[in-house]
């Protein structure tokens, strides 16, 4: 996003109010409200642009602008291809420029996410909270009830492992004997701190396929910052990551977080007018690949042990619409012997996780998640696979809350298991 | 018009969180998919017939206009609260209440979308036939109010042929049952017929009884390419004169062809004057012969090429131009308006010519789409709605178009409704006695004149 | 009627077109004793309008009339008033075969119309009991339908617009020439089946269909009713018949008297298919495979069978008359209704016969008692009515003057419906002159002029 809100006038007037977005906008589907619909948000943004409202002062408009999942489904369906998600982000940037974000958000974005050491410290504190009895207390004394959406969102947290990915790297990273390729792995905030075991699977899978992996130092990819209109910090993080990665001569920049992948890819657009970082960003973006996308491109070993299970797949928004990655994860899953793959209805509907949306808009995100759970239930699958840790967290929470038999898992974890099972003589070991 | 006491009463009926009065929320209920706007005074989300009955009783006693709204995808202003008052949002009444496959009947709430119903009955090998282009988002209540059509209309009929009953709330707040699941046998006036297409003027529907049809077993799809619109039009007449009634017979003009080709590069001939998308369906036996006959007729009438799909993927390809037509044309200008003047089928070439002429005379680009089989024209008029001068030319084009359609023995609207968008032209289509008669009918249903007030039939005291 | 009013009418129509002869008046009535005061023969819509204006001013009830073939079905006896016979208005104003429409005056007999339509291989798929003499206006006002309503629907599916003279004297047009038309409220289809209670249809825009390439009828004889029912159900679920009739043994016996003798004495199923020859043949072959005893009828044999079917009730009724009861039940309840109804009839009325428009869920029961002696079958009828009601349907008796069953059915729609119908009637006909004896509104309005 390089333009400011007002510069999008020609884009915003293209909405003809046909209402076709009603078919795919999840917030509309669960509320039936016009202002929770892409068309309605467009209307409010346009009315603001034309001077009927002050975008930066109307709290209600702020509310509707922030209730958007940024899932992008409306853009694909719109006959006029109105770029509503981009417009919403531009509106948010405008609001943030005028008012700044509320303190807790600023703290989270600037003080924690943009500082990886603090983020890890925070994660460890949460782990302590989980294991020390504090969580038990918080849940049973009703303390969480006092915290509103945040309190409800507490249940989303996975059990945080003892060590981050970076702390495990010395044991995990092993240069293959005859590497065919060399890639840089981007360790996203969530993967590093909340799901290091998933990242480990990814690295093992790559190394199994004779791909040498280096893991440069990195900061947050900046997608959360973009979502909150923190343009300056977004650009700062982008430049920081570009500087870090340019030191490595690799064929691709790979990540197993679809959101990060999309965010990194976006650097080209974000910095295209920057005289210093523009060309670097173009080069970098051209190398960014989501993990299954990369493996499908360069080829991966098909000698695997069986994983005997029915598996279905949820398309993260950032993968299917952000990167147009849809077939590759399915290709990987279908190549695993023993896997019976079933397609889920509305597999590309947002799960309601949407980054921090399930924390800030817990109730609404759960209503959206409920539809996803309904669809999952109908598949009868044992595994709900995906390629984004944010989705992973949300889907796991959904299975728990709805008490469904099934497990949320990352595609790389299943592939890792398949490779490991090749070594085992009998049956499949549980992942 | 809406006082605090009324608001309090609405809150009592519908619940506080379902009654909206803020500037921002009202702003988002000022429009539908048409070019008209109107500001409501209050927006109410309703859940059931009892709430609607209580609200209507209240509103009619205070003469507060009520505008029911489904998906707000109406193309004629049906969901626009032009006279203020209450917008009654039906989207939460969205349950499919019953599907009875052997009796071939379904009962739905008005907020169910057309496509949701289609998907629900498909597993039984059944179809709900009306397929308006908006079917993925338009609601059954809206379809009923406008007597929505669709591409299958020529063969399978319109909404009025597939809705056999409903539960209705009158403006007095009374709830009545109209029609029913059974085919009528008693001597009764056909109120069901009168209500379908009545644009929300006669009552608010709370349950809809739909007739389901066994799904056609097979189809054949063809795309025919023509040098001129006239040739395409003649083919259309010739096909039907042969006794073949296709389930799809869609015409697209050169502008649409080029818009689609520029965008998607699928190999459409950019010099072609028109293309016809033709589909026949039914028992598989005999479809090949019908398809052959159609292709021959097309060639005899000037088609430069006719393609027949050999499988589902090819069929999908042939449909691309039609499916993407509106999106393609929408890229050529900031805004578009889709009209639906309709003429007898044989007059289609003439009105197509007129549309082209108007387009040139007023310098307003127009792409042409038509349900050619029933003469239902969809000119896609392109403009920038911020340009006042351009809008004036657009209005002149519209008026001339309706004039011509009526002169050719046609109608102002084949499926989108009169609403607000064509209100001023009703005086061209009907004489004062006929309009007065329609007003009397409406008053019989709604003596308080609150239901979608000011739409469909012009008021007596506005100038002719 | 006062002599001065007769003069007024003669002035409008010409003296030959205003008749007071008792024989003519008897031909235009539903009873031998309650006769209209006069019968008039207008030749234009303008004349109709002027007549209605006079009637309105003078408070004279008016009943529109075509060939009168269905009058008994929809009208009660009425003493006095004026009958307006439209048969002099019988022209085809425009036959636009390329558009498949015909704009006709209401008084044209159907047989004549169809003959002209066929010159361009089209026809109007409406099937009243008397398909030659019934007028177009009559078909529309009566909501006429026959066995083919299964495939094509009743008359309202085949009209695009009307010219109507309102009782207040205005001549209005409804609908138009196009299939898709949402300009006005759908008065075109609202007036279909209104039996003259709201206004007089003077012209109609008809939607025509191409004559099908092939038409084939199949007759299936059975020994047991249960087998016939099972067959009919299969045929309706697996194929697309245009007509599907089930007749019990007694009805089959009447068929023979009506001019077509099928094989077998037990119940039978009569099915019609039409359309392109492959689709007809596929379906006929399917039926024949399931039921090897099926007889295939084409051309004249088929025509004779359907003609006999249409004449079933008149032939059953004969000179002494008979009572016709009609039942609507859900399709899935047909088996239960037919089985139990036949049991009931076997028990209480051995002379009864029964025929079903099977695909539509309609059953017609013929009772061997004159309408004047209804009391003799009332108990049976009530039991059948209860049976129908228990199965989610209803029963009405078509040719007696008592409208209780119909009134109860309409009242069950909600109290507001009767009031709404009253208001609608007032919107059309403030002076209450239009066909006060029309059954379709007789139970709604207080009609003190109807004969007892």
Automatic annotation (TrEMBL), chain A:
Gene3D superfamilies: Alpha-helical ferredoxin (1.10.1060.10). PROSITE patterns: 4FE4S_FER_1 (PS00198), 4FE4S_FER_2 (PS51379). Residues 6-35, 57-88 form the 4Fe-4S ferredoxin-type domain. It catalyses: glycolate + A = glyoxylate + AH2; (R)-lactate + A = pyruvate + AH2. It is an enzyme of class 1 (oxidoreductase). Its cofactor is [4Fe-4S] cluster. One of its GO terms (molecular function) is 4 iron, 4 sulfur cluster binding. Binds 2 [4Fe-4S] clusters. It comes from the Bacteria. Its EC number is 1.1.99.14. Keywords: 4Fe-4S, Electron transport, Iron, Iron-sulfur, Metal-binding, Repeat, Transport. PANTHER family: GLYCOLATE OXIDASE IRON-SULFUR SUBUNIT (PTHR32479:SF17). Component of a complex that catalyzes the oxidation of glycolate to glyoxylate. This is Glycolate oxidase iron-sulfur subunit.
TrEMBL record, chain B:
PROSITE patterns: FAD_PCMH. The keyword Nucleotide-binding does not apply. Gene3D superfamilies: 3.30.465.10, 3.30.70.2190, 3.30.70.2740, Uridine Diphospho-n-acetylenolpyruvylglucosamine Reductase, domain 2 (3.30.43.10), Vanillyl-alcohol Oxidase, Chain A, domain 4 (1.10.45.10). Its EC number is 1.-.-.-. This is Putative FAD-linked oxidoreductase. Keywords: FAD, Flavoprotein, Oxidoreductase. Its cofactor is FAD. It comes from Moorella mulderi DSM 14980. GO terms for molecular function: FAD binding; oxidoreductase activity. Belongs to the FAD-binding oxidoreductase/transferase type 4 family. Residues 36-215 form the FAD-binding PCMH-type domain.
TrEMBL record, chain C:
Keywords: FAD, Flavoprotein, Oxidoreductase. Its cofactor is FAD. It is an enzyme of class 1 (oxidoreductase). InterPro entries: FAD-bd_oxidored_4_C (IPR004113), FAD-bd_PCMH (IPR016166), FAD-bd_PCMH-like_sf (IPR036318), FAD-bd_PCMH_sub2 (IPR016169), FAD-linked_Oxase-like_C (IPR016164), Oxid_FAD_bind_N (IPR006094). GO terms for molecular function: FAD binding; oxidoreductase activity. PROSITE patterns: FAD_PCMH. Residues 32-211 form the FAD-binding PCMH-type domain. Its EC number is 1.-.-.-. This is Putative FAD-linked oxidoreductase. It comes from Moorella mulderi DSM 14980. The lineage of its organism: Bacteria, Bacillati, Bacillota, Clostridia, Neomoorellales.
